[in-house]
Design a protein that fits this description.
Largest sheet: 4 strands, parallel
GO cellular component, one term: cytosol
Order of helices and strands: EHHHHHEHEHEHEHEEEHEHHEHHH
Mean pLDDT: 94
InterPro entries: A_deaminase_dom (IPR001365), Ado/ade_deaminase (IPR006330), Metal_Hydrolase (IPR032466)
Family: Belongs to the metallo-dependent hydrolases superfamily. Adenosine and AMP deaminases family.
CATH architecture: Alpha-Beta Barrel
Number of domains: 1
Protein name: adenosine deaminase
Distance between the termini: 27 Å
Number of helices: 15
Structural class: alpha/beta
CATH topology: TIM Barrel
Enzyme class: hydrolase
Helix content: 40-55%
Low-confidence stretches: none
CATH class: Alpha Beta
Length: 370
C-alpha cells in the first residue's frame, strides 16, 4: 500500500515531493479511509468485511477498483460509506483524512462528500455536516501540532442519480459559515446530466456559492457542456474527456498543429480548472490504460489550467505526491512544472482572492527553497 510517508524524489533530483507545499482540490472523503479505520468502525456496527487484515483490505480495495468501469469502481464505496453512518465514524474519518493530507505536504485541501449517503442510521443531514466539520477542525489542529500548516474546506456533493439536488444545495448554503466552501454533483455520470439538477444550481448561483461538477470522466462533451452551462461550473471534476474536442491536424519535426473545438476553447479561454486524477482515470478507463496515454500532458502543453488530484486515495492506492511523481516520471516534468500545477490549483480554489494569493505565495516560497 502507498503511504503518505513516502518521499517520492524526482528522477535525477534530491527534492522530496512530499515536503513541497501542495493543494488538493478533488479528494473524496469516503475514498480516503485508512484500512485499519474501516476494520475498527465495521466491528462497532457489526458490518462484515472481505478481510480484517489491514494490508489485505487495502489490496482488496485497489483490486476491486481496478475494473475499467466507473460503475464497478463506485461499488467499493458501499463498504466505506457503510462505516460512516455515525457521528463518531464521520468525525474519526474526517480527522484522519486531514492528518494524512498534512503528512503529504498539503497546505490546502477541499474534501468532497455526499451527506445524503450518511443518514442510514438516523443522522440528519445537518448532523452529518457538523460531525465531519468537527473531525476536520480536529485534524487541522493535529497538523498544526506537528509544526506544519493546513487549511481545509468541505465540498458538499449531491448524488446526480437521486432527486435531492435542491435540498443538498440548501444544506451547503446553510453551512457556508461552518466550513463549506462549495458544491458538487457526483455519482454515475452517463445518463444523469447536470441539467437534471438545474434548480439546485440556480439556487447556488443566487446565493453565490461556487460549484464544481463531475464531468468528462464517464461521459463526453455533452456532459461537459451541461456542467458548464446548466451547472455554471467554475471547475470540471476530472474533465479529461475535454480532449475529445481537440484535434491534432498534423505533426512534423517542428511540432504539432492542433485545433480546439468550441467547448475546449471556451474552457481554455476562461481558465476553467480541470481537476485531473490520472490514476483514477486509468482505473475507470476514462482516458487510456497506461499513464503515457493519458491526456494530461496534451492539456498541459496546450495551456489549460490543469491540476493534479488523487480522487480516491484508498481505491487508487495513491497520494498527491505519488500522482505528481508518476506524472513527472512519465512526461519528464521538473519542479517548475509541478509548481505550475500547484499555482493552478491555488488560483482555482474556492476561497476569497486574498486567500488564494496567500496560497500562491506559500507555494512559490516552498518551491523556491526546495
Amino acid at each position: 500500500m502507498t503511504t503518505v510517508t513516502e518521499d517520492y524524489v524526482l528522477p535525477g533530483g534530491t527534492t522530496a515531493i512530499r515536503t513541497l507545499p501542495k493543494i488538493s482540490l478533488h479528494d473524496h472523503l469516503d475514498g480516503g479511509l485508512r484500512p485499519q479505520t474501516i476494520i475498527d468502525l465495521a466491528a462497532t456496527i457489526g458490518y462484515e468485511l472481505p478481510t480484517t487484515d489491514a494490508v489485505e483490505l487495502g489490496e482488496w480495495f485497489s483490486t476491486q477498483s481496478d475494473s475499467g468501469s466507473l460503475v464497478e469502481y463506485l461499488k467499493a464505496f458501499d463498504v466505506t460509506t457503510a462505516v460512516m453512518q455515525t457521528k463518531e465514524g464521520l468525525t474519526r474519518v474526517a480527522r484522519e483524512f486531514v492528518q494524512d493530507l498534512g503528512s503529504d505536504g498539503v497546505i490546502y485541501g477541499e474534501i468532497r462528500w455526499a451527506p445524503e449517503q450518511h443518514v442510514a442510521r438516523g443522522l440528519t443531514l445537518d448532523e452529518t455536516v457538523e460531525a465531519v466539520q468537527a473531525g476536520l477542525d480536529a485534524g487541522v489542529e493535529d497538523v498544526r501540532a506537528t509544526g506544519a500548516s493546513i487549511r481545509v474546506g468541505q465540498l458538499i456533493s449531491a448524488m446526480r442519480h437521486a432527486d435531492r439536488g435542491l435540498e443538498i444545495a440548501e444544506l451547503a448554503v446553510r453551512h457556508r459559515d461552518n466550513g463549506v466552501v462549495g458544491f458538487d454533483i457526483a455519482g454515475a455520470e452517463a445518463g444523469f446530466p447536470a441539467g437534471n439538477l438545474r434548480d439546485a444550481f440556480d439556487f447556488l448561483a443566487h446565493n453565490y456559492l461556487p460549484a464544481t461538477v463531475h464531468a468528462g470522466e464517464a461521459d463526453g462533451l455533452e456532459s461537459i457542456k451541461g456542467a458548464l452551462f446548466d451547472g455554471r461550473a467554475l471547475r470540471l471534476g476530472h474533465g479529461v474527456r475535454l480532449a475529445e474536442d481537440i484535434t491534432v491536424e498534423s505533426e512534423d519535426e517542428e511540432g504539432s498543429y492542433v485545433v480546439l473545438g468550441p467547448v475546449a476553447q471556451w474552457v481554455k479561454d476562461r481558465e476553467i480548472a480541470l481537476e485531473l486524477a490520472p490514476s483514477s482515470n486509468l482505473q475507470t478507463n476514462a482516458w487510456g490504460t497506461e499513464l503515457h496515454e493519458h491526456a494530461f500532458d496534451l492539456l498541459y502543453q496546450l495551456g489549460f489550467r490543469v491540476t493534479v488530484n488523487t480522487d480516491n486515495r484508498l481505491m487508487s492506492n495513491t497520494s498527491l505526491s505519488r500522482e505528481l511523481f508518476q506524472l513527472a516520471e512519465t512526461f519528464g516534468y521538473d519542479l517548475d512544472d509541478l509548481q505550475v500545477f500547484q499555482l493552478n490549483a491555488a488560483a482555482a480554489a474556492f476561497l476569497p482572492l486574498e486567500d488564494r494569493e496567500d496560497l500562491a505565495d506559500q507555494i512559490s516560497a516552498g518551491f523556491e527553497s526546495a
